[in-house]
Amino acid sequence: MALADLLTFAIAQPTGDRPRDDELDFFGLTHPGKVRKQNQDHFLVCTIHPQAVVHGTSLPDVENLPLRGDRLATVLLVADGVGSGAGGEASVLAARTITGYVTTTLRCYHTAGSSSDELFYEALTEAALEAHSAVLAQAQGEKMATTLTLGVAVWPWLYTVQVGDSRCYVWTEKKGLQQVTRDQTVAQDLVDRGALPRDSLPKSPLSHVLASAIGGHEAKPVVSRTEIPRGCVVLLCSDGLTKHLSNKEIEQHVGNDQTSEQLCRSLLDTALDRGGSDNITVLVARARRQS
């Protein structure tokens, strides 16, 4: 089922404690690191609104019309290209394809958190597979693949689409840092099957061999849902960060109550200080607490 065919129209999301646009704090950055010449990582953060485009009117003061509606969702995306120069093309194409897919088909957003939630899961899975098909079509036999970690925040939920080994974390005061995505790597598959001890995972040569990738041999999107209370921090990153910082170390940075920009820069600086062996991308979103 196409995302555009799910429902007839979008309706406003619940209000309550829902953050206003001016209460959101976003920041993202990407760096080639100290070893690689090219940066094949890409990130994106955007908000989705219903919008009217006026092409002609006799009304006066058209600029005062309510042309843009309330925020329906926030989209966060990190894509880490795999392989040679074509990996960078893959991450760009995947990001553009999936962003266009989810931002131009607004009709399903009100199913989020409702009894029709499974329709939203199906739509997000379809969006990832659309990106996979686009990269395969562009590759024409050339090796061209990318990871994809997509977060779609529809208050008060964060829906995460995972393909590959970039990551999404959610930090809250009550629970601390939680990794809400599972790395789709050969080593993680072995751990899950009991064939590799969990404590051997970080040092395994298979820990960065992807079992699923956009444009790869197989793409297996996994969609999950996490509640995001006001005051939480959502963090997406490529494995250029997690190669150098453990989850516990990331949690220590997040818990320092920095702005999104300060947090991104402090994490990047730490990864660079420890060698910067890969491209590094960090994207942070948070809603300020009400005073």
Report the order of strands and helices: EEEHHEEEEEHEEHHHE
Strand tally is 11
Question: For the report, how would you describe the main beta sheet?
Answer: 6 strands, antiparallel
Query: Kindly state the mean pLDDT as a whole number?
Result: 87
Structural class: alpha+beta
State the share of residues found in helices, binned by percent. Answer: 25-40%
Q: What does it look like?
A:
The chain has helices at 85-103, 117-139, 186-192, 239-242, 247-254, 260-273; strands at 24-31, 41-48, 73-82, 145-146, 148-154, 157-163, 167-172, 176-179, 222-227, 233-237, 280-287. By secondary structure, the protein is of the alpha+beta class. It has a single domain, classed as Phosphatase 2c, domain 1 (4-Layer Sandwich), CATH 3.60.40. The strands form two sheets. Strands 2, 3, 4, 5, 6 and 9 form a six-stranded antiparallel sheet that branches. Strands 1-11-10-7-8 form a five-stranded antiparallel sheet. The termini are far apart.
Q: Could you provide a short overview of the structure?
A:
The protein has a single domain (24-49, 68-287), classed as PPM-type phosphatase domain (Phosphatase 2c, domain 1). The chain is 26% helix and 24% strand.
List keywords for this structure.
alpha+beta, Phosphatase 2c, domain 1, 11 strands, 26% helix, 291 residues, 6-stranded antiparallel beta sheet, disordered N terminus
